[in-house]
């Protein structure tokens, strides 16, 4: 079956992925309408879903509020609109008129469909784009608006896509919420009647919500049940509206932007929405997550085949007290542990001695680095490690040479206070001169110093989001800011092919498919407390893979929570992603250094399984029992299991963990004990984890298939 097929008699389009189908048609009014999204269908079967036009129910109902591919504002539509435009004469309604279609294969294994429409009267073109891959059940959608008139118009809302679900008795919504240092907390709750809005109005993806949703009929589990999910590839403000309609349907629509802003579209101008990707599975939440992980590795991350190195970051060891001698000493201690990438965090530049000054002045501090960064970098390379730096290109302190020279470069409104958060203001990256300045010093910094890695941070949300020098700048900047941010990173990577970048925004404030398509890993939270991280990482894993998640081992008592947990527990939690270390190694005991080196070596033996394998959440957090996660290589030759136990109750038996994803006919050897297990026992009957007694117990299990 072709990936994209068409039945001209019924006007039905069918998009086919390896395990699912998506069908749509243009109805008699010219509007693109949804037919099916779920299990595989033939084109003939999809045609059966075309129903005759419904008669008028009452004078209060109008068109069904769910069921169009991109619901517009106009006519008798009363549901959540995906597209709202205002023409020069004040008219806001849009009326669909089909123009044509095109199909193509932009790359091997990829097929695209474009459906072109125009308004029946006004010169506005709307093109709906669909993309499918032969190795993924993810369907990517986006919308292109083109003003073909000689007059400007205003885009009040332009979502990437709307998604309609089949009728079910009930629906449940899964999403994450949180705040700074408490990101990614998973919630599953019934979808209420009416509209539920998830959003960020902060100019960034945000710590408080993330632009993905999962919906199920209320009966899905980790291992079974139908799940429909979608994720938006956008790193600015966004919104997703989920609606449960009076006629029993459930649908959602999402895109960039926020209420209260608009996008002017001048004569001849075009606007392309960010992509919204979605998938269906009947294998439960676990299968949905694994499908997202595989898609991200295959089609999102720029270097998915790489194994990410073990990283050391200097922040918790030194704070702002950064000097060449101190960093050299730390680098030597990190190398002894087996670290492969050494990163100097905040405090290396300008007059930066605390968070009140220096942001924007990106030259090495003369006092801490009298000969520049070269001596430190050479020492790090001599020790066999790569070298990285923390940067925050989008920010400026008022106490800086940059701000004194360019006070107009920040987001601001005339006659309004410039609110400082963390003693800093936001540079207006929507301005081309600001973006060009950032690109210039970044590319020089990387080239002049042989920088291997940048931790790109962004430590506050927008406020006073104005651009007085630009007409309608307060509306334009929200989109242009993100596009210019992307462009700076893209140019930087094109200039320096060996450069790798970590996305960070005070932790997990900017994690999404858009930023991950141009960075190599993400910092999910500033909270490094291992106990808290179990839940944060659980939420992260719903959509994003372990290969993209940096996890630090830091000192105790933890700086945020004051909690003390054993070093082994901290390592085992951090081994669930890209392992990193952020403690003050000078104060580690000889025993701690030896144990740390042993665990780093252990991680290197299994990181190919963690970073490139399939993930099974064997037991999630949330009760007194252990949490367990398993990773398995694609050829099923190896598996790695991590188990964490907070504080067991006396008399409560340890649950049996049934493993997953193994070759059912094979046997597997435990590399730690040498014991050989039948896969049929491990998966069908399970294994009791060998956890030490006491609080904060953890263990790991590495299994290798035994060849007969």
UniProtKB/TrEMBL annotation:
Where does the secretion signal sit in this chain?
none
Does the record's keyword annotation contain Disulfide bond? Answer: no
Instruction: List the catalysed reactions.
Output: Hydrolysis of terminal, non-reducing alpha-D-galactose residues in alpha-D-galactosides, including galactose oligosaccharides, galactomannans and galactolipids
Q: Which GO terms describe its biological process?
A: carbohydrate catabolic process
Q: What GO molecular functions are on record for this protein?
A: alpha-galactosidase activity
The residue ranges of the Glycosyl hydrolase family 36 C-terminal domain are 627-703
Q: Could you tell me the keywords of this UniProt record? A: Glycosidase, Hydrolase
List the catalytic residues: 457, 526
Question: Could you confirm whether the keyword Hydrolase appears in this record?
Answer: yes
E.C. designation(s): 3.2.1.22
Q: Where does substrate bind?
A: 180, 345-346, 422, 455-459, 504, 526
Q: Where is the Glycosyl hydrolase family 36 N-terminal domain?
A: 30-261
Q: Which domain of life is it from?
A: Bacteria
Q: Which family does it belong to?
A: Belongs to the glycosyl hydrolase.
The name of this protein is Alpha-galactosidase
List the top taxonomic levels of the source: Bacteria, Bacillati, Actinomycetota, Actinomycetes, Kitasatosporales
Name the gene behind this protein. Answer: galA
């Amino acid at each position: 079956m072709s990936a994209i097929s068409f039945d001209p008699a019924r006007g039905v389009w069918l998009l086919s992925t390896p395990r699912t189908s998506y069908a749509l048609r243009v109805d008699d009014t010219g509007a693109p309408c949804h037919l099916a999204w779920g299990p595989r269908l033939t084109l003939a079967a999809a045609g059966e879903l075309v129903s005759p036009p419904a008669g008028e129910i009452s004078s209060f109902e109008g068109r069904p509020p769910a069921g169009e591919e991109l619901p517009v504002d106009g006519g008798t539509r009363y549901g959540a609109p995906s597209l709202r435009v205002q023409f020069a004469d004040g008219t806001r309604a849009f009326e669909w008129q089909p123009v044509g279609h095109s199909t193509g294969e932009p790359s091997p294994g990829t097929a695209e469909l474009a459906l072109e429409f125009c308004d029946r009267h006004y010169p506005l073109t709307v093109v709906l784009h669909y993309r499918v891959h032969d190795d993924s059940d993810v369907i990517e959608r986006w919308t292109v608006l083109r003003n073909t008139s000689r007059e400007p118009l205003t885009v009040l809302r332009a979502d990437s896509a709307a998604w309609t679900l089949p009728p079910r008795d009930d629906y449940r919504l899964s999403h994450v919420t949180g705040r700074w240092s408490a990101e990614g907390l998973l919630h599953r709750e019934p979808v209420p009647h009416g509209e539920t809005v998830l959003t960020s109005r902060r100019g960034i993806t945000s710590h408080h919500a993330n632009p993905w949703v999962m919906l199920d009929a209320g009966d899905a589990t980790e291992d079974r049940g139908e799940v429909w999910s979608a994720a938006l590839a956008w790193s600015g403000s966004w919104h997703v509206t989920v609606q449960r309609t009076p006629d029993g349907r459930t649908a959602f629509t999402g895109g960039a932007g926020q209420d209260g802003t608009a996008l002017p579209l001048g004569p001849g101008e075009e606007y392309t929405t960010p992509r919204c990707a979605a998938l269906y599975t009947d294998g439960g939440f676990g299968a949905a997550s694994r499908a997202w992980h595989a898609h991200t590795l295959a089609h999102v991350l720029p270097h998915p085949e790489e194994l990410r190195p073990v990283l050391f970051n200097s922040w918790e060891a030194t704070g702002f007290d950064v000097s060449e001698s101190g960093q050299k000493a730390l680098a030597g201690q990190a190398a002894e542990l087996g670290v492969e990438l050494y990163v100097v965090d905040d405090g290396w530049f300008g007059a930066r001695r605390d968070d009140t000054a220096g942001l924007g002045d990106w030259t090495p501090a003369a006092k801490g680095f009298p000969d520049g960064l070269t001596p430190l970098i050479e020492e790090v390379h001599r020790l066999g490690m790569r070298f990285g730096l923390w940067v925050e290109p989008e920010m400026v302190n008022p106490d800086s040479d940059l701000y004194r020279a360019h006070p107009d470069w920040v987001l601001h409104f005339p006659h309004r206070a410039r609110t400082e958060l963390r003693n800093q203001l936001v540079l207006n990256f929507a301005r081309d001169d600001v973006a060009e300045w950032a690109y210039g010093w970044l590319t020089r910094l990387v080239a002049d110093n042989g920088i291997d890695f940048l931790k790109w941070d962004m430590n506050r949300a927008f406020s006073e989001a104005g651009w007085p020098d630009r007409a309608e700048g307060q509306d334009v900047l929200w989109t242009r800011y993100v596009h210019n941010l992307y462009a700076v990173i893209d140019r930087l990577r094109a200039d320096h092919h060996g450069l790798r970048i970590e996305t960070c925004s005070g932790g997990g404030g900017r994690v999404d498919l858009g930023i991950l398509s141009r960075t190599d890993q993400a910092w999910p939270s500033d909270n490094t407390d291992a106990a808290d991280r179990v839940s944060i990482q659980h939420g992260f894993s719903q959509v994003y893979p372990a290969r993209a998640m940096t996890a630090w081992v830091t000192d105790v008592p933890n700086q945020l929570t004051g909690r003390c947990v054993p070093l082994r527990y901290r390592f085992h939690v951090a081994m669930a992603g890209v392992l990193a270390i952020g403690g003050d190694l000078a104060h580690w005991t000889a025993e701690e250094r030896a144990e740390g080196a042993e665990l780093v070596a252990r991680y290197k033996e299994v990181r190919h399984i963690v970073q490139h394998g399939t993930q099974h959440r064997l037991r999630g957090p949330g009760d007194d029992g252990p949490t367990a996660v398993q990773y398995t290589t694609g050829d099923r030759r190896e598996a790695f299991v991590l188990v964490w136990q907070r504080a067991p109750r006396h008399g409560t038996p340890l649950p049996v963990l049934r493993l997953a994803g193994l070759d059912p006919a094979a046997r597997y050897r435990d590399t730690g004990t040498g014991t050989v297990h039948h896969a049929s026992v491990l998966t069908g009957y399970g294994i009791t984890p060998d956890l030490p007694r006491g609080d904060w117990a953890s263990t790991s299990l590495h299994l290798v298939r035994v060849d007969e």
